Amino acid sequence: MPAGTLYRGREGMWSWVAHRVTGVLIFFFLFVHVLDTALVRVSPEAYDDVVATYKTPLVNVMEYGLVAAILFHALNGLRVIAVDFWSKGPKYQKQLLWSVVGVWVVLMAGAFYPVLQHTLRTLFGS
Amino acid sequence: MSAETTPVNDAVSLYDVDHPAPVIEPPRKRTAKTPKATRTNFELYGWLFMRLSGIVLVVLVLGHLLIQLVLDGGVSKIGFAFVAGRWASPFWQAWDLVMLWLAMLHGANGLRTVINDYAQRDNTRFWLKMLLYTATVFTVLLGTLVIFTFDPNIR
After folding, report:
1. Total-model pTM
2. Residue B118 pLDDT > 60
3. To the nearest whole angstrom, how far is the Cα of A77 from the nearest Cα of chain B?
């Protein structure tokens, strides 16, 4: 690692990169999501047609990815607030990040079946 | 005496009354070219808004995900009838309206920062931000209109 650069790697930099990437992805989804929801003003059929896309296996898996991105952005955002406003935040920023990752893993494991149940039931369903 | 502490004040000065040292301006000194009107605390308020809206959005968005994608069958139950059922309540209308505005402004300000960081040419940066602001205003107004004019008996 060259000296004198801000890009020092490790937890601080990579959490910043992941926060940016997830933020941009979530914003693009939000844009599409407001457009698809606006179809309720067109007709019930138009809305149900586009929601059917959300129930296909590929898009259902992407929804799990969306949950992953939002959960990371939310938890790491709380970490950023702690680093900015809590006097000991900067000192414990690495521990805070690994706590974020730990909570994220638990919540993602818990969300696996509920979010993907539509696909799991369609593909292997009883 | 070690090399690091060798005094330098006995070196012959390059400058004297007739040859003054050049003035180096502080990096942020205001000059004749600095516009007065743009010196606001906009970026400070933007920074604060990201944190305050972020805390509210954690509750609103995670609650939204829980209802839409986790509880009661996940995505299976979503359809026009489900939306009609939820928007029959002013509470959920207000929830969605506040979530729409905060999320769009939070996201737009985030993308503004990203554009400022990576778009190096002045023209590129300007037009990307115009595109962003146009899309943001359009999306916020469209979403607001949909929430306020929703009609469960559209047909």
Report:
1. 0.82
2. yes
3. 7
